[in-house]
Amino acid sequence: MIKLYVDGASAGNPGASGVGVVILVNGSQRQLSHALGCHNNHEAEFLAVIWGLEQCQDFGTNHTLQLCSDSQAVIAAINKRYAKKAPYADYIDRILTLLDAYPLVFCTWLPRAQNKKADQLARSAINTLKKP
Prior knowledge:
This protein has 132 residues and is an alpha/beta fold. The protein has one domain (2-130): Ribonuclease H-like superfamily/Ribonuclease H (Nucleotidyltransferase, domain 5, 2-Layer Sandwich), CATH 3.30.420.10. It contains 4 helices and 5 strands, in the order βββαβααβα. α1 runs parallel beside α3.
């Protein structure tokens, strides 16, 4: 099983944004962050899922996947397989394409306190954008 913890953060709405992911697979852990540029907080959360799923492709798609996010909006949109407004509809289409490659997927909402490491990684990515 692959466990993917994701978080997106934005310093401003919109503002400098970043994503953080923690991937647990086969007893190992990978912690990654990525600076996004200027996005609002919701975009950063959706983009965190996309970027995290892209990083999971390194492990193949023959695993069960558990996606964990502290964004209720993202988890609800994935579970409904629908987002009404642009750019979120495009983000959901990309997320669903990535998720559909796995034989079994669980999408889990977590309280923010249980997603601290992904949040720290996302915020550290923002800090790379703020440095001169």
